[in-house]
Specification:
The protein is mainly alpha-helical. About 55% of the residues lie in helices and about 10% in strands. The chain has one domain. The strands form 2 sheets. The chain has a two-stranded antiparallel ribbon with strand order 1-4. The chain has a two-stranded antiparallel sheet with strand order 2-3. A hairpin with a 7-residue loop joins β2 and β3. The N and C termini lie far apart (about 45 Å). The relative contact order is 0.13.
Length: about 170
């Protein structure tokens, strides 16, 4: 099994720092914001190649736009179990977003079998769920319910049963 590009870790911050960051974010994803700050610091300290930072910035940009699209769709249409598919279809309808997605995956966005697509698509799904506080729908055996998709950059999405975000 190939090694993941990402490594998860826990970060503990003073509540006052978190509150200050939340004011700046205005509903955007804190995880992406903190990742961006850390990567920018590492690049500015000349600890990694700047091209890695450009790759990362493009991924963060994609996910930030997905997060914003999810919030906008939620405000306009509310929740539905196929919410992730709606957000992906709205995102891929934006030519610039689709070009950036193609650059991240390094191939035709609609082509299947690309391991880079799998990674970013999982991140997109997680970003959509985080944006609305989505709760994954599960089958009686406890497994997430996956729905097939055609004619999209994704081949399937995880159905949601509810969300915790309320209309603003």
């Amino acid at each position: 099994m190939p090694q993941e590009d990402n490594m998860k870790f826990t970060l503990t911050l003073d509540r006052r720092v978190v509150a200050a960051i939340q004011k700046v974010l205005e509903g955007r994803d804190m995880n992406l914001y903190l990742q961006h700050l850390i990567v920018a610091h590492v690049i500015n300290a000349d600890l990694i190649d700047p091209t890695i930072g450009k790759e990362f910035d493009l991924k963060v940009s994609l996910l930030t736009r997905v997060h914003e699209t999810a919030r906008n769709i939620f405000r306009a249409q509310g929740f539905s179990p196929d919410f992730t598919e709606k957000v992906v279809r709205a995102s891929e309808a934006d030519p610039q977003w689709l070009d950036d997605y193609a650059a991240v995956v390094g191939d035709d966005p609609y082509k299947t079998g690309n391991p880079r697509k799998h990674k970013i698509n999982r991140a997109i799904g997680a970003c959509v769920r985080e944006a609305i506080g989505g709760v994954v729908a599960t089958s009686p055996n406890g497994k997430p319910i996956l729905e097939p998709v055609s004619g999209s950059i994704i081949q399937k999405f995880t159905r949601m049963e509810s969300c915790t975000l309320t209309t603003e």
